[in-house]
Amino acid sequence: LVVRSPEGDLTLYCKGADTILYELLHSSCDSLKEETTEHLNEFAGEGLRTLVVAYKNLDEDYFQDWIRRHHEASTALEGREEKLSELYEEIEKDLMLLGATAIEDKLQDGVPQTIETLTKANIKIWVLTGDKQETAMNIGYSCNLLYDDMEDVFIIEGSTSDDVLNELRNARKKMKPDSLLDTDEINIQFEKPSKKPKLIPDEQANGVYGLVITGHSLAYALEGNLELELVRTACMCKVVICCRVTPLQKAQVVELVKKYKKAVTLAIGDGANDVSMIKTAHIGVGISGQEGMQAVLSSDFSFAQFRYLQRLLLVHGRWSYIRMCKFLKYFFYKNFAFTLVHFWYGFFSGFSAQTVYDEWFITLYNLVYTSLPVLGMSLFDQDVDDRWSILFPQLYVPGQQNLYFNKMVFVTCMLQGIYSSLILFFIPYGAMYNTMRSDGKAIADYQSFALMAQTCLLIVVSVQIGLDTSYWTVVNQFFIWGSLSVYFAITFTMYSDGMYLIFTASFPFIGTARNTLSQPNVWLAIFLSITLCVLPVVGFRFLKAQLKPTPSDKVLLKIKEAKKRPPPPSPKRRLRRTSTRRSGYAFSHQHGFGALIMSGRNMRPKSPFATTGTFSPNSDKHKHKGL
């Protein structure tokens, strides 16, 4: 920022991190720099966010020449960014240290509890911040990321590439000594040349550890020969804190995790410096607040409070995953059972391409009869409500392990579909073979068999989706019973005498519905088909839950037991008066002390600011002694 005083003097003011501005200071500021560093460390130890402020007096002729060159660089068609960067570096040197600022960065409500809950859900949390190391660690302790019961908190602050490598390896040696041996599987895997990207499997440490790395050391760790060491060491730790990092380094860290780990990354931020990180992650979340709307506009999801993240992941995210998995399993099952009946029928029809079902049933099966029930399940189903999802974060773990839909689940759906198709073909075939009605007339014809097979199929898949549904609503009931009612209504209408007289060629199954479905043995065969298709599924699920329960089954059992007990009385929350004078800036949603500070009314009398509330480094009274 360049300011012209009433006397016409030009002054350049700069603010930024101490690690950046200290390199731009004049050599005469060494003594003041040491004193300011002590103050910065003291402020950072109290959890305050610190910045350094410096200034520089500018000559009028030089500034006019610099403005002219800046305009030429900003309008250049080639190398615009490089030219502007050179001009900024030219003017931002030999600065005079003015002092440091420190503000309180007040956390939003529920941040520590949210982080603790997400940690129980086996979600790895990495903090990428531009704060000083002391401030970042204090925030880590206040958010329950770091705690005293940890075995150790490794601090990586090497100034050279070799120092960073040694610190990372020493940390990994303490967490898992065998990982440095040549016989380690990961070391052997990465020694072999391969064109395909290699993924690092999960490694278990011998305790709970934390990792803190500074931005200067991170620059070396992100190099090609050290990035593997950084990922392996960091992934063994329970929490990773990267401090004094640039926006580009935030994006590089996220990209590094995506490169070497088979994981889904989520980045959450509230400022413009988080935009690159949010765009790089698989899922970007922006927090709307005092930091602006850049993060919100670049994100996939946005909300006003960090604590809403636990509902996004543990409630709505988990429900969405369960619904998609159930939808896919049911979709594959009902179509396997529907299609393979044609295959078994081919052995008896000489593979003549004759369909086993009525052509109208084939058209309406996926379009009308089975579309709404699966839609209702995929929109409303939930295994437990939101309250239990928050109380038991372990329910989120099966989704991370991909347990609800994988190759084994797909094979199971296929085998179930094959078994159901065999039942749905041979039971109606055996029931219709040489069968006579009560009046002595035969009903062992193709049309009666087709009607019986398609009726069995539709009832079986409707019962199956009823077994898959965990949360029943009026909509689910209406869709399932409505689909069956629509099927029988359409069937009796299309197979009636009137439709045959109007559209003779299109509806040849005249009278088949009323003649076939009026026989008791037909309904007995339908009941037998449903029982044989559903009973193995119910038995398998019962035995699996009893003999080999998954972590989700164990948690669901705890929830059932908890529901039987009377609920504990809800704690009474005390109302707090909200103060209008808060000093939280980065995460606060209320006005701080900005107007009060700018007015100068709260300054001490002994300060040179007391009389006017302004300061100019060009005044003779306050010029630096080194000039």
From TrEMBL:
One of its GO terms (biological process) is phospholipid translocation. Residues 296-550 form the P-type ATPase C-terminal domain. It holds the Pfam family PhoLip_ATPase_C. One of its GO terms (cellular component) is plasma membrane. ATP binds at K15, R49, T129, G130, D131, R244, K250, N273, D274. Its cofactor is Mg(2+). The keyword Transmembrane helix applies. Residues 561-580 have a biased composition (Basic residues). Keywords: ATP-binding, Magnesium, Membrane, Metal-binding, Nucleotide-binding, Translocase, Transmembrane, Transmembrane helix. Its EC number is 7.6.2.1. Mg(2+) binds at D270, D274. PANTHER family: PHOSPHOLIPID-TRANSPORTING ATPASE FETA, PROBABLE PHOSPHOLIPID-TRANSPORTING ATPASE. NCBIfam families: ATPase-Plipid (TIGR01652), ATPase_P-type (TIGR01494). Belongs to the cation transport ATPase (P-type) (TC 3.A.3) family. Type IV subfamily. This is Phospholipid-transporting ATPase. It comes from Bucco capensis. The lineage of its organism: Eukaryota, Metazoa, Chordata, Craniata, Vertebrata.
